[in-house]
Amino acid sequence: MNWIALTGIYFVAWFISLLGTLPFGVERDENPEAGHDAGAPVKAMMWRKVAAATVIAGIITFSIWLVAELELVQLRPDL
Question: What is the enclosing helix (H) or strand (E) of 56?
Fold first, then answer.
């Protein structure tokens, strides 16, 4: 597997991981100021979520690379 394919897999896995980590740790303000959205989080903690998505995407990408290198799944027919 070449580095271009691994980079593409990493970015797709990172984005999906980020979307999966966004809801964790959200605390909403019970009495928002006038004009503010009631569903907006008090502290979004985006750096933690970005770091978690980076680690999760790295693990997913490494797992896919390992499966491809060890040929645990055959995607090409035997000739």
Answer: helix 46-69
